[in-house]
Amino acid sequence: MPEFFQLKEPAVTDAPALYALIEQDRPPLEKWLPWADSMQSVADEAAFLQYSQQRNADHQLWLRIIWVADQPAGMIDIHEMKDGHGEIGYWLGRDFRGHGIISQSLVLTEQAGFDTLHLNKLSILAATENNASRHVAERNHYHLDGILRQHIPTTGTAYHDAAVYSKLKTER
User: Fold this and answer.
1) Using CA atoms, how far apart are residues 34 and 143, in angstroms rounded to an integer?
2) pLDDT at residue 34, as a whole number
3) What are the residue boundaries of the structural domains of the chain, listed by start?
4) For residues 27 and 16, is the Cβ–Cβ distance under 8 A?
5) For the residues of 70-117, what is the DSSP string, one character each?
6) Which among 57, 69, 62, 65 has a CA at the least distance from the CA of 4?
7) CA 108 from centre of chain
8) Dist. CA 44–CA 162, nearest whole Å
9) Residue 53: how many CB atoms within 10 A of its CB?
10) 5-121 under CATH 1.10.10.10, yes or no
11) Contact (CB, 8 A) for 62 and 113
């Protein structure tokens, strides 16, 4: 685990560093995350961060930037919050993977989801072929609820099947 790790609220000034992470790892991000294809400039990232700030303020989103030492490493969020449920999404720049950063971020995100947002269930959707993301859910004791066929859009007209994992507030 890195020596200095934290989750911070999004700031538009983080856009250049976050965009650089996306550019550095664009093909794998685009393979698994539909939004990556639309992020084509620092201005796009800045607009997304500004949008996220407003959605955070409106309690429609809980998004944090993952910081390691003095630099952004990726993001984690809870979205689609309704009826006591929320979906977790995350991504991490390639140089930060394999150090337990997402698992530690997930612990803090679960605390926010269950304790601050008062959600009863958190879900993680991962493409069935995205073994790294599926392993994050499994290592962190999320239950495999099932497979949604052709659920996650890819570039073009194709879709990935999605593995749906969940954790209940009582399962922490």
Assistant:
1) 24
2) 75
3) 5-121
4) no
5) TEEEEEEEEEEEETTEEEEEEEE-GGGTTSSHHHHHHHHHHHIIIIIS
6) 69
7) 13
8) 27
9) 16
10) no
11) yes
Largest CA distance in the chain: 43
Helix 15-24 to helix 42-57 angle (10° resolution) is 120
Which of the four pLDDT bands, split at 50, 70 and 90, describes residue 61? very high
What is residue 40's three-state secondary structure?
coil
Q: Give the β-pairing of 121-127 and 143-153.
A: unpaired
pTM (predicted TM-score): 0.92
The C-alpha atoms of residue 62 and residue 162 are separated, in whole angstroms, by: 22
Residue-wise pLDDT for 70-116, tens only, equals 899 999 999 999 999 999 999 999 999 999 999 999 999 999 999 99
Instruction: Write down the residue that tokens 């910081």 correspond to.
Output: 67
**3 Cβ neighbours under 8 A, 6+ residues apart:** 69
